[in-house]
Design a protein that fits this description.
With 362 residues, this protein is α/β, with parallel strands linked by helices. The protein contains 15 helices and 13 strands. Helix 3 (67-79) crosses helix 4 (90-101), helix 8 packs across helix 13 (315-327) and helix 11 packs across helix 14 (329-347).
């Protein structure tokens, strides 16, 4: 019988961590593994995972010690003959460990945990017990691991770093031309952002950047969604600054690769400490030159001025980097080519997937 893999993610929204689970599950299914998903209640997640040929169960598992999600997870482990439980939040890890302990000793699955955040680990007795029960802890960056260990104590042989990757971009089946759709001149340089529309992602900085570059032939496109109240605020800000012909919100898009492939420059001015931004990889994969903030793990896989431009997330530094790329098209093209080559050699999905499956040891 094919080996069984259970992914548990308590999410109710879609972001980089959820895309990580989706891509990994899809690849595992294609490789012949039996994959089961457990998530929080979310219409977005439910709709997205319909594309996967696997069982999807919804649990309201906010409390890590609640008996119902533990029992239900155990039943899935038992009936589906699960060999590996891969969890993506610590609340999930408690449930997974408790559920696995209900199984006979010789039938207990491995419990693998991926740390998607940059945050100190906890060191109280509950977490110390939990760490001892985990087979492996995967960090998506060295930065994530380093920060975790400032708070937690855990055996080094349980820890590993596997840089994120993204699956090859899907073909464009919608054929949306964003310049045409938003009536943007073909003489404009298109500058793209993709991610959550939120203040901590630096999107307000981009509004000010667009305002100061209003006399250049540029158009800014923001792809993604956020809280309705914040999107309303941002649209009013754009209108107030009279940027409605230069600054566009596309909303959530199902095929990021199709959007990114139409951009001339990518820009990700995150204000927060990113554990590993998947959006960065999407631009690198497509060979689109990228400006990214230096606030997180980006420095581990972007070489400044060779495979991208790293900046402090300020308006002045973003503008300086943008002007440099706008004024030197050859340099811009070379940066994109270098980034794409770096992705192919060091960060492609096969490398990532093989490392994950070595941890599973199935």
């Amino acid at each position: 019988m094919n080996k069984g893999i259970l992914h548990i993610f308590a999410s109710t929204s879609w972001g980089g961590g959820e895309q990580y689970v989706f891509d990994l599950s899809k690849k595992q299914i294609e490789a012949g593994y039996r994959v089961i998903l457990i998530s929080g209640r979310s219409k977005t997640i439910k709709d997205k995972v319909k594309a996967l040929d696997c069982r999807h169960t919804i649990l309201n598992h906010r409390c890590r010690f609640s008996p119902f999600p533990i029992y239900k997870t155990h039943k899935i482990i038992l009936h589906e003959k699960i060999d590996v439980v891969h969890v993506h939040q610590f609340s999930d890890a408690f449930i997974a460990v408790f559920a696995s302990l209900l199984s006979a000793r010789n039938k207990r699955p491995k419990v693998i945990f991926t740390r998607h955040l940059v945050r100190k680990g906890k060191r109280n007795w509950m977490y110390r017990w939990l760490y001892g029960k985990l087979h492996k802890v995967i960090f998506v960056s060295e930065l994530s691991k380093k920060e975790f260990l400032t708070g937690a104590s855990i055996s080094e042989d349980k820890l590993t770093v596997i840089h994120n990757s993204i699956a090859p971009s899907a073909p464009d089946t919608q054929h949306i031309n964003y310049s045409t759709y938003f009536s943007v001149s073909d003489k404009c340089t298109l500058i793209g952002f993709i991610g959550q529309i939120a203040k901590f992602k630096g999107v307000e900085l981009l509004v000010e950047v667009a305002e100061r570059l209003r006399n250049r032939k540029v158009a800014f496109f923001l792809a993604g969604s956020g809280k309705e109240s914040y999107e309303f605020f941002l649209k009013n800000l754009i209108a107030k600054k009279k940027l409605t012909q230069q600054f566009f919100l596309t909303g959530f898009i199902n095929n990021p690769g199709a959007f990114i492939g139409q951009m001339d420059i990518g820009i990700l001015p995150s204000l927060c400490t990113e554990a590993f931004g998947l959006s960065v990889l999407e631009f690198m994969q497509a060979g689109i030159p990228l400006i990214a903030s230096n606030t997180g793990a980006q420095r581990e896989f972007i070489t400044h001025e060779k495979t991208g431009l790293l900046v402090n997330p300020t308006v002045d530094e973003i503008i300086a980097a943008l002007v440099r790329l706008l004024d030197d098209k050859n340099y811009r093209i070379q940066i994109g080519k270098n980034a794409q080559q770096a992705y192919k050699i060091h960060l492609n999905y096969e490398i990532f997937y093989n490392k994950i499956m070595q941890i599973y040891n199935l």
